[in-house]
Amino acid sequence: xxxxxxxSMKKGIYGGTVLALSAYPAVIIxxxxxxxxxxxxxxxxxxxxxxxxxxxxxxxxxxVVVCFVRSRxxxxxxxxxxxxxxxxxxxxxxxxxxxxxIFYDLRTVTGGASDAASGFGGxxxxxIISPGGIFMIIxxxxxxxxxAYFGGRVYKKAITLRLAGFCAGILVLVYFLDLTFIWASPxxxxxxxxxxxxxxxxxxxGLLTGIRLDFKNxxxxxxxxxEQVSAPESxxxxxxxxxxxxEEKPVEYGFNQMDIDFEALAGTEKNSTVxxxxxxxxxxxxxxxxxxxxxxxGKNLIMITAEAFSAEVIDEKLTPTLYRLATRGINFTDYYxxxxxxxxxxxxxxxxxxxxxxxxxxMKNSATHNLYFTMGNQLNRLGYYGKAFHNNTYTFYxxxxxxxxxxxSDGYMGYGNGMEKYVKNTWPQSDLEMIAGxxxxxxxxxxxxxxxxTVSGHGEYSLTGNSMSKKNxxxxxDLGFSEKVKCYLxxxxxxxxxxxxxxxxxxxxxxxxxxxxxxxxxxxxxSLDSDGTLGNMPYLSELYGYNVENAxxxxxxxxxxxxxxxxxxxxxxxxxxxxxxxxxxxxxxxxGTEYDSRLLPGRDVFSDAEAFVFDMSYNWKTDLGYYxxxxxxxxxxxxxxxxxxxxxxxxxxxxxxxINYCSKVLETDYFSYFLGK
Length: 677
Fold this sequence. Notes:
By secondary structure, this protein is α/β, with parallel strands linked by helices. The chain contains 25 helices and 15 strands. The strands form three sheets. The protein has an eight-stranded mixed sheet, with helices on both faces. Strands 12-13-14-15 form a four-stranded antiparallel sheet, covered by helices on one side. Strands 8-3-11 form a three-stranded mixed sheet. Helix 11 packs antiparallel against helix 12 and helix 18 (431-438) packs parallel to helix 20.
């Protein structure tokens, strides 16, 4: 009997130890699964396997530390506190995702979260206290309560040093097992290292691994190396040049290239990261000038980043002015606006011609950088009057600092430093009131360069949550859409009214033929489906007219580039894939300014440069088809298209190089190394 009792006690102790060591890994797995269900585009994929393995690793580390503590009370307190903090992290990211359709990286959390809280605190608070929000809070804090209540029974006995060492060995084994499986998958291994992106990492490996990798990249700065890319194959057979009459010889255009010897700079640069960028640029071929070079030379420029603008807003009957600008200027039929990092990320793309590499923070962190190639700075150097306007809070995302540095040296006006004189305090504020109020301040200037960041199209899209939707409701109420989609269109009718006023006044003053209007979005209208993921976005799909299943479909938009002088000419159509990073190089070429095409990752759309678009998640599209990084699948644009050998690999490497370049420009203030501060 004593032997049986001893054996029973031994089993009890052993079982209790196993329970204590497995408690926290179970909590982490629970958190990650709930998070994945509520935010992931594809729950059942290899990503769930990697997420569980990493959860075992992180939870195991905490469990070993907790169980090694001598005091039972301390073990319970530490475990409960750790689970509460972890639950709070998951919940914060969940509500951020609900509002902005992105996860906040560490740079944003440490530097930009206050902006989001001040600007969208009310909306986030509504999400938190909603039935769905309360339900999620209960789900996440359920394990916290269970640990607090049952912790004394779970953590009965501390483990020995020997057992702790054994557990540590098991966790090391789990870590290497996870990495082995990752390296065995081309898609996941690339996402883990070569094509690292915080948003994708969270989806592929779980939130905690995404945070870990983000911390690592923030500390190390990522990789310095650029990949070697083979030259594209030519479909043309070499032939002897034919003799032509002198007058029929094609015009020989020079290159859009500045007189900078990057190879020499690389040889003398002490900063290894900057030297690697110099070498990368030195190996690129600049694009050529063309028949469109300088056609806007000396003209005025009005650039507009339109809040949540989409191609579907443009309609001949509903928005006749926007339709006119889109079809009687330069017509872009395959344009994309990557959803990189919310509104300020969209601005960064449009104005700097770079992908933002820090969620919500790239523009803010560039406030003191040399932003030589923004159109604001290019035209500022030519003596243009330059001013920026915004009809929401002027300090939001530090626009009062960033927009002066963008080249709008004659000032920046938002709500709170002058715009309130013209714009009523509604939510959102009126684009028409902003344009009508500010236009007289510059329309008579000899040369003006103006930028507007609008807000009327901002969510939420309802008659109670959007004053512009309510204002313009009668114009859309009979359309064949759901109320939410009609409210979105109604909100954008305020932009239509603003553009109608702007064009009318330009024509009355005789400035239309000398003024270029460029309109692009900041991001897709994510507020239509605050709970949706790709493949499950009913309202966005309703608006677009097809089921939105991947990022490229989601980000399909429209670029408007118009000048009054174009209306009497033959229509100019750009049918090749174009995106927001193409705006700056295209405008630079059209205005005939001095720029170096090698230093901008986008392209002048009228040049001989290869056409392709890409985003921060390494998705891309060319004339031949599109590639989705999360699946590793390339889909030809047409079944009859013959894709050259090595083509997909070449474009993948090119995209990785360009994204790496965007990162290094931001990280090092790259242009200052050869253009000065």
